[in-house]
């Protein structure tokens, strides 16, 4: 069975594929995801991608944060001049495909689900929330390990390339700061130097990210070039993580109540979640591109992307790397371009994901496939 058809079949058979305990969002997701996966033209594909993104973030009342930033990123890739634009591939539709692929793997790979459940237990703690003079304990977003995972995955998969644009700007700090300011404009905020992105209300978000990743990330935030090949001064994964943290902090700052009801859903605005669930999302985003850094050895990459270390980080890396269909060059995209299915195929057995017909990107060597698909992604991926 072709991959998109298999996605649709899995979504139809699993009503809780992306949302749990919400008939409205479950039904809307089934409908809109089938429209997206069945799109026959680029115009329809892009339209349905936007509909899915807005629906997914509406669930947590975060629609003011990430969707406009994804639109800004997409506009930049398509309309701003930069070097090697003729080779640049778009990331807007890619992010939606990463979201669906990751959930498809999660729903079919029992070994991963066991690891994720344990990770959700290990990376959350009971929080006492007070509202209207009533105190109650919460631990997971929505009340279970699976719902906590889905909360994190929605943000991680769709936000992991929010700052991809900075990879296209080389060492031009002024241009990079301009891009960041375009993302903060909706909050009437701006920065004059890059470090102001992660300074918020007396907090240093980079220090929080260093702590959760267990790494010193200052070298990939503009202070040092790490890769002669990719010319990375600013790693887009790390800056995307910091941008997401800043956007979510700005959203929480807008709410002076601990909780609210939105669209029939119960939304928790307790700021303690910023140091748990949201920071774990930022951790995965920050690490997803670090294998491009020259200073990291193969052994270090295998450690970072080991499922035993973090199944969530592993899943984002795997889904991002294996998402190779409908990833068009930005200069080739036009509304009349026809869209088809892909022959890539996944099967699952015990602790293995078996991948067939992987569509090796053009101008990429066999060594790339061996290195990034078989070696850099650990835990029996073959």
Short description:
The protein is mainly α and 382 residues long. Helices cover 47% and strands 8% of the residues. It has one domain.
Based on CA atoms alone, the radius of gyration comes out at 20 Å
Overall strand count: 8
Number of helices: 14
Number of domains: 1
Major sheet details: 2 strands, antiparallel
- Structure class: mainly alpha
The portion of residues forming beta strands comes to 5-15%
Written overview of the protein:
The model is unreliable at 223-232 and 368-382 (pLDDT under 50). Strand 5 and strand 6 (265-268) form a beta hairpin. The chain has 382 residues and is mainly alpha-helical. The protein has helices at 3-13, 23-37, 42-58, 66-79, 92-108, 110-122, 145-159, 173-184, 205-213, 236-253, 277-287, 298-304, 311-322, 366-375; strands spanning 127-131, 134-138, 199-200, 203-204, 259-262, 265-268, 345-349, 352-356. Helix 5 packs across helix 13 (311-322) and helix 10 (236-253) packs antiparallel against helix 11 (277-287). 47% of the residues lie in helices and 8% in strands. A two-stranded antiparallel sheet has the order 1-2. It has one domain.
């Amino acid at each position: 069975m072709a991959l998109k058809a298999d996605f649709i079949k899995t979504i139809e058979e699993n009503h809780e594929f992306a949302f749990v305990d919400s008939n409205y969002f479950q039904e809307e997701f089934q409908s809109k995801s089938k429209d997206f996966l069945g799109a026959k033209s680029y115009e329809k594909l892009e339209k349905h991608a936007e509909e899915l993104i807005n629906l997914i973030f509406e669930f947590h009342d975060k629609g003011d944060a990430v969707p406009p930033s994804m639109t800004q990123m997409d506009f930049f890739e398509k309309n701003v001049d930069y070097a090697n634009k003729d080779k640049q591939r778009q990331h807007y539709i890619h992010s939606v495909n990463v979201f669906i692929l990751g959930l498809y793997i999660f729903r079919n790979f029992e070994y991963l689900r066991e690891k994720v459940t344990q990770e959700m237990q290990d990376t959350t703690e009971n929080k006492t929330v007070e509202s209207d003079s009533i105190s109650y304990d919460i631990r997971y977003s929505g009340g279970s390990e699976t719902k906590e995972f889905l909360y994190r995955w929605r943000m991680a998969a769709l936000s992991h390339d929010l700052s991809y644009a900075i990879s296209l700007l080389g060492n031009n700090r002024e241009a990079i700061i301009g891009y960041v300011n375009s993302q903060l404009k909706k909050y009437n905020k701006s920065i004059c130097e890059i470090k102001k992105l992660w300074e918020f209300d007396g907090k240093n978000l980079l220090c929080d990210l260093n702590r959760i990743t267990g790494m010193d990330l200052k070298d990939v935030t503009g202070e040092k070039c790490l890769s002669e090949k990719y010319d990375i001064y600013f790693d887009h994964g790390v800056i995307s993580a910091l941008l997401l943290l800043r956007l979510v902090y700005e959203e929480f700052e807008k709410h002076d109540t601990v909780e609210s009801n939105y669209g029939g859903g119960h939304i928790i605005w307790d700021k303690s979640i910023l140091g748990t669930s949201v920071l774990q999302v930022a951790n995965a985003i920050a690490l997803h591109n670090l294998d491009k850094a020259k200073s990291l050895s193969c052994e270090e990459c295998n450690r970072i992307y080991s499922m035993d270390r973090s199944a969530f980080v592993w899943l984002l890396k795997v889904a991002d790397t294996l998402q190779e269909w409908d990833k068009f060059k930005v200069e080739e995209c036009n509304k009349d371009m026809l869209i088809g299915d892909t022959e890539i195929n996944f099967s699952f057995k015990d602790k293995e994901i078996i991948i067939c017909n992987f569509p090796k990107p053009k101008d990429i060597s066999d060594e790339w496939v061996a290195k990034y698909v078989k070696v850099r992604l650990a835990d029996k991926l073959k």
